[in-house]
Amino acid sequence: MNSDKRNSVYRYVLVGFILLLSIIIFTEMRYYLGGFMAAIAMYSILRSLMIKLVEQHKLSRGLSASIIVLGSVIFFLLPLTGIGFLVADTISGININPEQIKIYIEEFVSEVERKAGIEIFTPENLSFIPEAGKSFMQIMASSLSSMVMNSVIAIFVLYFMLVSYNNLEVVIMETLPFSEENKTILRQETRAIILSNTIGIPVVALSQAALAYVGYLFLGVNNPLVYAILVAFTTVIPVVGTSLVWVPVGLSAILTGDILRGILLLAYGLAIIGGSDAVIRFVLQKKLANIHPLITFFGVLTGLAMFGFWGIIFGPLLLSLLLLLFNMYRHDYIKESNVNPRIASK
C-alpha cells in the first residue's frame, strides 16, 4: 500500500471515529441541545460587539465576554424566562373544567348547525377534550423546565464561544469541505437567517399579542391575556395565522346574541391584529432576511419537537440550511442549473 493510499485510509478511519463519537455524544446531550443552539444564536448577534470591546476598546476577552453575557441575562434571558413563568401562572390560574368546555362547545356547534343547516360534530367527537386539557398542561410544565435549564446552559456556552471567537471560526471554516465562495455564502446566510428568526419571529408575535390584548381588554373579552398568548403562537401559521383566534372570538360573541360587539371584534381582528402582520413583516424584511413563510412554519413545527422553546428559532434555521446546501450542490455540480445558492435575500 503506497503512502497516498494509506493516508487516504487513515483519513476515512479518523472521520469515521469522529462521526461515531459525535453520534454518541449527541444522543446523550440531545435534551440540552436547545441551550447550545441558543448560545449559537446569541453569539451570531453579539460577535461584532465582542470584537469591538476587545479590538477597539482594548478590554480583556474575559471581561468583555462577562459584560456581554451579563447584559444578555438581564435584557434577554431573564425577561424571556419571566414571560414563560407569567404564561404558565396565567394558564394554571384559569379554572379549566373540561366537562363545562365540552358543554359550551356542544351548545356553540348546535347553534351553528341550526343556523347553517349542516352537521359539524357529534358528542362522540368531543370526547378528546378532557385528555387534551391534561396533555396541554403537561406540555407547558415540561417546556418551561426545559427552557430554564437550556437558558442556563446557553449562558455558559455563550461565554466560552465569545472568549475564543476568532479560533472558533477558523476551525469551522477550515473543516467545511466547501469552496471559499460557498463558505462565505454559508457564513452570511447563516447569520442572516439567525437574525431573521431571532428578531423577526418574536417581534411579530409580541406585537400582535400586544395589539390583541389591548383590543380584547377594551372590548370586554374574558381572559384577554390568554387570547393574546394564543395570538402570539398562531403568528407562525401561514395564510390563516391569527384568524384562528380572532375569528372564533368574534363569532362566539355574535352567536350568543352580542352582535355589535362580535362585529367589532371581527373588524378589530381583521384590520388591526391581522393587518399588522403584513406591515410588521414588510418592515422587518427590509431590514432582515426574507425567509419564505413555509420554511418558518414547518421549521417551527420541527424545531419545537427537537429543541423545545428554542426550536422557534432553530427549526427554521435547520430547514433553511438544508435548502441552502441543496442549492449549493445544484449550483456547483449540475451544469444545467441556474439556481442561486442564497435563500435569504433582503
Automatic annotation (TrEMBL):
The chain crosses the membrane at residues 9-26, 32-50, 62-88, 136-163, 192-219, 225-251, 263-284, 304-326. It is a multi-pass membrane protein. It comes from the Bacteria. The keyword Oxidoreductase does not apply. This is Putative transmembrane permease. Belongs to the autoinducer-2 exporter (AI-2E) (TC 2.A.86) family. InterPro entries: AI-2E-like. Pfam families: AI-2E_transport. The keyword S-adenosyl-L-methionine does not apply. One of its GO terms (cellular component) is membrane. Keywords: Membrane, Transmembrane, Transmembrane helix. Signal peptide: none annotated. It is found in: Membrane.
